[in-house]
């Protein structure tokens, strides 16, 4: 497919990573972005350890490490070694999270994409899918224009809550950590000035967040006499939970939030989208339609599992008495090693195993530590026998054929 074009719609992390993946294989790629400049609104602040390992296999580790260290120092971040949470229960184990804001990751990925010859055009509004390329990939977020134009079904459940995330100056006694109250949930830290709020009274009336409505929500949920003197950045979110039935319709494909939306519980959204891009890029570059169909077969179940566990986390954190008892019971269950291991692997995506036709227990799993910076697969020796590694770092075969 080296003489063909791919148009990627959306210059967020997923679209930029996908463009890098395609360019590594010589695919001429154009990225179209509606916004003229990178959005500075607070978004994801960390990536999972598994996502870090996958970025490292492509040679991104030095840039990610430098950006992570700079942000941790500048923002007084104090969550080193954190492995994440489930419904506010910080009892997970496994790979530690890596501090890396979405904006920093976008800068890293955009620089690499440009170095690889990707054309990035900002300020372009897509109104149709006749974009002069063989394939179009929608990486344009939860309100995806590409998804709507291509007619993808997007079933799921509607929003039931209003969440806020902000960096703000707060005057008053507001404790750090997660706190559940009769009115909802509030959390502060670990980033200096970061607050998170949830009210379970329906979706937000507007996406605009003012100092006044953020302060009123914080006072209602926390029950404390606190004031917000300044809002540096803020956004709303909800638990709208939907997933397309297929990730491909002919020559149009979806990745990231364009394919699946859910609440940010567990910090899984950015990682899910980036791993979509790793799975899709090398397959799309081959031009093999049958191989491309495995993108849906492999990634749809992974996305479905994230949707289901985020819905469960919303249910566990509701403030009614029954949900509070369920939360307490689940906290006790997470003290059991086998339960902790199962939930940790699910949230971090470390137990993903694709069907490859090989019955070895490690077939289909990710093999960290390899240099796959060329974007190509390789062979290695595992358990004393030869193993074949796909371009996305997953083992496709182990042992003699």
Name a few traits of the molecule.
single chain, 401 residues, alpha+beta, 6-stranded mixed sheet, 5-stranded antiparallel sheet, 10 helices, globular
Question: Your description of this structure?
Answer:
35% of the residues lie in helices and 21% in strands. By secondary structure, it is of the alpha+beta class. The strands form 5 sheets. A 6-stranded mixed β-sheet has the order 5-2-1-6-15-14. Strands 9-10-11-8-12 form a 5-stranded antiparallel β-sheet, covered by helices on one side. The longest helix is centred in the last third of the chain and has 29 residues.
| CA-atom Rg in angstroms | 21 Å
Which runs of at least 5 residues are low in confidence (pLDDT < 50)?
none
H/E series, N to C?
A: EHEEHHEHEEHEEEEEHEEEEEHHHHEEE
Please work out how many helical segments DSSP would assign: 10
Overall SS class:
alpha+beta
Percent of residues in beta strands: 15-25%
Distance between the termini: 28 Å
The largest sheet is: 6 strands, mixed
Give the oligomeric state: single chain
Strand order of the largest sheet: 5-2-1-6-15-14
Helicity, in percent? 25-40%
Mean pLDDT: 95
Q: What best-fitting shape do the alpha-carbon axes yield?
A: globular
């Amino acid at each position: 497919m080296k003489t063909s074009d791919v148009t990627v719609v959306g210059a967020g992390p997923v679209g930029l990573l996908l463009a890098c993946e395609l360019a590594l294989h010589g695919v001429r790629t154009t990225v179209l972005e509606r916004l003229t400049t990178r959005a500075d609104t607070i978004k994801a602040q960390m990536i999972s350890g598994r996502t870090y390992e996958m970025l490292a296999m492509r040679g991104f580790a030095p840039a990610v490490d430098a950006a992570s260290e700079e942000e941790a120092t500048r923002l007084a971040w104090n969550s080193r070694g954190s492995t994440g949470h489930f419904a506010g229960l910080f009892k997970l184990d496994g790979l530690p999270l890596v501090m890396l804001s979405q904006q920093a990751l976008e800068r890293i990925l955009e620089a690499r994409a440009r170095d690889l010859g990707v054309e990035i055009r900002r300020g372009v509004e897509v109104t149709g899918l006749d974009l002069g390329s063989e394939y179009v990939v929608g990486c344009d977020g939860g309100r995806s224009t590409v998804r709507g134009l291509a007619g993808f079904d997007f079933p799921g459940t509607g929003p039931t809550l209003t969440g806020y995330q902000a960096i703000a100056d707060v005057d008053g006694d507001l404790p750090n950590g997660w706190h559940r109250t009769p009115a909802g949930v509030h959390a502060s830290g670990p980033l200096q000035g970061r607050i998170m709020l949830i009210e379970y009274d329906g979706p937000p009336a507007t996406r605009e967040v003012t100092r006044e409505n953020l302060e009123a929500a914080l006072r209602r949920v926390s029950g404390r006499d606190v004031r917000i003197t300044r809002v540096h950045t803020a956004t709303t979110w909800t638990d709208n939970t939907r997933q397309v039935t297929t990730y491909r319709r002919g020559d149009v494909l979806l990745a990231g939030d364009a394919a699946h939306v859910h609440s940010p519980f567990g910090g899984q959204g950015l990682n899910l989208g980036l791993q979509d891009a790793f799975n899709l890029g090398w397959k799309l570059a081959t031009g093999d339609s049958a191989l491309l169909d495995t993108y849906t077969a492999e990634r749809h179940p992974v996305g479905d599992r994230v949707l289901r566990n985020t819905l469960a986390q919303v249910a566990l954190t509701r403030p009614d008495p029954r949900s509070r008892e369920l939360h307490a019971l689940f906290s006790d269950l997470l003290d059991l090693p086998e339960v902790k291991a199962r939930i940790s692997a699910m949230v971090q995506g470390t137990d993903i195993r694709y069907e490859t036709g090989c019955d070895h227990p490690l077939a289909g799993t990710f093999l960290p530590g390899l240099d796959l910076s060329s974007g190509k697969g390789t062979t290695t020796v595992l358990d004393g026998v030869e193993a074949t590694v796909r371009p996305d770092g997953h083992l496709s075969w182990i042992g003699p054929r």
